[in-house]
Design goal:
The complex is a heterotrimer of chains A (251), B (329) and C (293). Chain B is built from 13 helices and no strands. By secondary structure, chain B is an all-alpha fold. The longest helix of chain C is centred in the N-terminal third of the chain and has 31 residues. Classes of the chains: A alpha/beta (251), B mainly alpha (329), C mainly alpha (293).
């Protein structure tokens, strides 16, 4: 991603922001509030259109694409608050998150219900396995809206897992999560990476970032101010200043 | 008496078809469409101008064909679907929920003004008349017997519509529509085109509105702009709210309760104090109160949306969910 | 050239009535976040209350006061009985929006119940047309415009220079925060509805004076034009609504000289659709809409 910019009514939320993330690694994206992290994610995943700049993913320039096309290319994102489909069951949530592959065509529902059901059953079996891993199997017929906050976070991960993405951007996955659940999420992220998925985590919880990330990108005032392994950042003057709320030198 | 009941039930079957179509738009996808009765009205008009031939001189309207009723039904559905495609393509693209509703309200009022004033289209304020009883050219049934045939016809079409919608509702397509309704950003993040799904549902719903309109044309025999308004759409909504948004059986139950039983009973309220509108006013007040009470206390209606169970495995204890209306927006 | 001035003259009359209605609509939206589809009934209640008073007293001043009070009380009751309870029960905005449509059905039919469906009219003194510069107005037109202007100036003073105006702005900028930090937020909302109702009720009265007759659906017919002005002015922005109302009034009345007058409303609704599509935050806003923004 190069030279990305977005402004709202004259306020530059993100300007000339460039970074790249390594494939099949975990990269953390950190920065103080208002640094433009959320806007950057929205720009990369198509939820907002950039005013300038390019986003390259899987060999294609995807800036300005609508979100569903970005997603179908294998780049999936989550949201700060879990956005489960609350009036649907946990199992239905999983089935929608699974790759669609033309199954939602109206003619199939009307004229080919048999083959459709078979294809669905494969997804169902996979969904059960994944739900079991996350300890949600017993709740599969429960409405997602009835789950606890922690369970919703787990469902979010389960949905990402069944979607088989190439890359996933997790927006503050640790918000409102207790330490036990945190460990479980660490495991989930590790298993995603093990299967070749590229992971980007936006997070305020720095110990968690230090534990799970291979490298870190630091943003402040809408642009990237540092990148590198977490340990190298402690000695970086600009990063420390940004977190103390001062304008970094030369910005 | 039996004639009266047959007529009332026929009307219920026709309204059920319309309400099931509207339920695709509101119950499944959650778009509050006020233009819906415009699609029904277009279906009525199209069924008429394609079957009644030419009326004598002062009346003017397009087409004036004398096609068989089934062909007219197909034309009515296609016209409604086409209009909905146009309206939906514009209004569903980027409008927030209440803006979409206001746009559709403006659309139906524009349609009504245009059809009322532009006489060459559907004869303006005077409307159309002279619709023949479908298939009675072949059947030659007596005026006493024909209503029962027509009742059977409408019921059979309702059954077919119900079966098709049940299949769609339980399919991945129906599930995707509900996902868009529950949380559209997440649906987009998992690869669903919100616009395409909403537009498909909107056109499908409107086509069913056109189907209901074609049958209604045959039921009424005559039609003019004073017979349709946004209030008619609201009556269909009242039936859906009471019966259960998103539940096909609930919608039919709602129509039978609200549009049939309730409407017919309140017809017997006497007009008080020389006010010819008294009983109509009481009826509409009660319907408004019914809508308010349902919205406030039982948003899921009498029959809540069915919840598909994962086939294999042991039964699980399920507690009720407060319903989608209760979540903060 | 003469027709255009005639159109502008009519447009200013329509626009000033519309401005009051649109300001009222936008104020309730500002504090509650709901486009109130029962707004038209506030005008209807004002107009019918004035009608009842003119029949009893033949005094137009009393009629105007009655219209304002009836509108105010109806709006207050609408908020207390429908909007507030729904908001407090944390019901989705779209459902509350639908509930206001239900309320409109109830209110409209109560009028039908009491007054019947026939046209009724005020008994008004005859006034003569007079040439003012290039414009031609009747004394009635002048009274409508002057009284609307007075109401708008009073409203402006109230919004800019009182404590209430300040709290109203605070509530409309962040409803959640105002509700939580809530010193008097609830009362600000209540009073805003009452105030908006007064303005809308008075608008209903001068609209009925201008049109000449009224029926129970009188306000509902005016609803969409009101919404058009309020949206074009940027929902929740009182001065935007006033400006847009004048523009819309002029557009409608001038166009009526060039196309069939029956299509006047068609033009207004067409403008509404265009505004919603291309400037959903109002004609005077720098923002343009997007799917998720």
């Amino acid at each position: 991603m190069r030279g990305l910019a977005k402004s709202f009514g004259g306020v530059h939320a993100v300007s000339d922001c460039s970074f790249a993330v390594p494939v099949s690694r975990v990269t953390g994206l950190i920065g103080p509030n208002g640094a433009g992290k959320s806007t950057a994610i929205d720009l990369v995943t198509g939820f907002k259109a950039p005013d300038a700049g390019t986003v390259r993913f899987a060999g294609l320039e995807i800036q300005g694409w609508p979100p569903h096309r970005v997603s179908r290319l294998g780049l999936i994102r989550t949201f700060q608050l879990p956005k489960e489909w609350s009036g649907l069951t946990v199992m239905e949530n999983m089935l929608i998150a699974a790759p669609e592959r033309g199954r939602e065509a109206i003619w199939r529902a009307l004229f080919a219900p048999g083959p459709l059901r078979q294809a669905e059953d494969e997804d169902r079996a996979r969904a059960r396995t994944i739900l079991e891993e996350f300890g949600l199997l017993a709740l599969r017929d429960e409405l997602a809206g009835n789950l606890s906050g922690g369970q919703k976070r787990l469902l979010e991960f389960a949905r990402v897992a069944i979607a088989r993405p190439r890359m996933v951007i997790l927006d503050e996955p640790m918000g409102g999560v207790n330490p036990v659940l945190g460990a479980r999420m660490g495991d989930a992220i590790a298993s995603l990476v093990a299967s070749g998925v590229t992971v980007v985590i936006v997070e305020h919880n720095l110990p968690f970032i230090e534990r799970v990330c291979d490298a870190v990108i630091v943003m402040a005032l809408g642009t990237v101010i540092a990148t590198g392994p977490f340990s190298s950042l402690r000695s970086n003057r600009a990063v420390v200043d940004a977190y103390l709320g001062e304008v970094p030198a030369g910005a | 008496m039996i004639q009266y009941i047959a007529s009332v039930v026929t009307e219920g079957a026709i309204f059920s078809i319309m309400a099931l179509g509207l339920n695709v738009i509101w119950g499944w996808v959650g778009d509050f469409d006020i233009a819906f009765y415009g699609y029904v009205a277009l279906g009525v008009y199209m069924a008429m101008v394609t079957t009644i031939g030419r009326l004598p001189a002062p009346d003017q309207y397009i087409l004036g064909w004398q096609l068989p009723f089934p062909v007219a039904v197909v034309i009515a559905m296609a016209s409604a679907a086409l209009l909905a495609l146009g309206v939906g393509a514009i209004a569903l693209r980027k409008l927030r929920a209440s803006y979409f509703a206001i746009t559709t309200l403006a659309t139906v009022l524009m349609l009504q003004i245009f059809i009322s004033n532009y006489t060459p289209l559907f004869n303006g304020y005077n409307g159309l008349y002279g619709m023949a009883q479908p298939f009675n050219g072949m059947l030659n049934l007596s005026p006493q017997a024909y209503p029962f045939f027509f009742l059977a016809l409408c019921t059979a079409i309702l059954a077919a519509v119900y079966l098709v919608l049940e299949r769609l509702s339980n399919s991945p397509f129906g599930r995707a529509l509900r996902a868009v309704r529950e949380e559209e950003r997440a649906a987009a993040a998992f690869g669903r085109s919100i616009y395409a799904l909403k537009l498909k549902a909107y056109v499908l719903g409107a086509a069913l509105g056109g189907l209901g309109g074609a049958l209604f044309a045959a039921y009424l025999g005559a039609f003019n702009p004073s017979a349709w308004s946004p209030i008619e759409t609201l009556l269909l909504y009242a039936a859906i709210f009471v019966g259960g948004s998103g539940n096909n059986r609930g919608v039919i139950l709602g129509v039978m309760l609200v549009s049939v039983v309730f409407q017919e009973i309140t017809r017997f309220i006497p007009n008080v104090g020389g006010n010819a509108s008294f009983s109509a006013a009481v009826r509409e007040i009660l319907i408004g109160v019914l809508i308010l009470v349902t919205m406030r206390y039982r948003i899921q209606g009498l029959l809540p949306e069915p919840r598909p169970k994962d086939a294999a495995g042991e039964p699980v204890a399920v507690k009720p969910y407060a319903g989608r209306g209760s979540a903060a927006d | 050239m003469d027709t255009i001035f005639l159109g502008i003259g009519f447009g200013l009359v329509t626009g000033s009535i519309l401005a009051l209605s649109a300001v009222a609509f936008t104020l309730t939206y500002a504090v509650s976040g709901i486009p109130n589809l029962a707004h038209g009934e506030l005008l209807t209640y004002g107009a019918y209350a004035a009608y009842a008073v003119t029949r009893a007293t033949h005094n137009l001043f009393f009629a105007a006061v009655a219209a304002a009070l009836a509108g105010g009380m109806t709006a207050w009751a609408m908020n207390a009985a429908v909007v507030e309870p729904f908001v407090r029960a944390r019901i989705k905005n779209i459902v509350i929006f639908i509930a206001t449509l239900g309320a409109s059905l109830v209110l409209q039919n109560i009028i039908l119940l009491i007054f019947g469906g026939a046209n009724v009219a005020y008994v008004l003194p005859q006034t003569e047309s007079r040439q003012v510069g290039p414009f031609i107005w009747t004394g009635r037109d002048a009274a409508i415009m002057v009284s609307a202007l007075v109401v708008m100036v009073l409203l402006y003073l109230m919004l800019q220079h009182t404590k209430f105006g300040k709290s109203l702005r605070a509530v409309s900028e962040n409803r959640e925060l105002a509700r939580v930090s809530g010193i008097g937020a609830h009362r600000v909302v209540q009073f805003t509805w009452f105030l908006a109702g007064i303005v809308a009720g008075f608008a209903g009265f001068i609209l009925a004076v201008s049109v000449g007759t009224l029926v129970p659906s009188f306000g509902f017919t005016f609803l969409l034009v009101t919404v058009t002005a309020a949206v074009a002015g940027g929902l929740g922005k009182p001065y935007g609504a006033m400006a847009a109302a004048i523009v819309l009034g002029l557009a409608m009345e001038i166009s009526a000289f060039y196309v069939d007058a029956a299509y006047k409303l068609l033009i207004a609704f067409g403008m509404l659709v265009l505004v919603l599509l291309f400037r959903p935050d109002g004609l005077f806003s720098s923002k343009t809409g997007g799917v998720f923004e």
